[in-house]
Each structure stands twice: as C-alpha cells, then as structure tokens.
Sequence to fold (125 residues):
Amino acid sequence: MTAIECPFCDACAEEIVVHNDLWFARWDVFPVSIGHLLLIPFRHMASYFDATHQEKQGLLQILDESKQFLDAKYRPDGYNIGINVGEAAGQTVMHLHVLLIPRYHGDVGHPEGGVRGVIPSKQQY
Fold:
C-alpha cells in the first residue's frame, strides 16, 4: 500500500480530535471501547521503529494530551496502549498508529494480563 492509498494519510481535519505538529488523534472506526483513539503520525511510515527520535517524542506528547482529553470526556478507569508492528502482530494498515483504548471496570470479566491477551492462552498467569 502506498501513502496515496493509505486511509490514515487521507484523514480529513474533521476527524482530528487532538493534534500536535507531528501526530494527530482520531476516533477508531472499529472501537474496542467508548473513547478508543488512534494516534497517527502525519508522516507516512509503516512502523514505530521507522520513526525519528523527534517523532517518538511527539508521540509521548500526544499520548498525554489524548489521555487528558479522554479523562475529561469519558472518565475511564484505566487504559491499554498498543502498537501492532507487522502482519504477524496484527497490523492491517501499514501506517504506524498507536491504539489508546480506555478501559472501564467490568468491561471484561478478567482483565488481568491486559495486553498479554493478544495470545489468549498467555493472558492468565
């Protein structure tokens, strides 16, 4: 997929809820929970490991700003933060994006293990 065909490169201003010079946040179109955001760099790159030091710093900034935005809007009880890198890890859009998923008490029966649930047999330990 080229940047021209990339759904994240074609984002329109109305979709952006938080932004800085290098990143923007938009609602996930297939949300895991209420308030699920995608944090996306404006520059097209496939992987977190392709980001510059400055872009990684920008990610930390927008992550904090997006959390503050969601705290004020939805008051979640916790968060999962994830990055899928490569098809084997579940990445389906080959433009770096970070999932900021608000979590709420009772949204799943046993949240222990958190992101370890990407391999269900490894979640509970």
Summary: Helices lie at 53-74, 120-123. DSSP finds two helices and five strands in the chain. The mean pLDDT is 93. The CA atoms of residues 18 and 69 lie 8 Å apart.
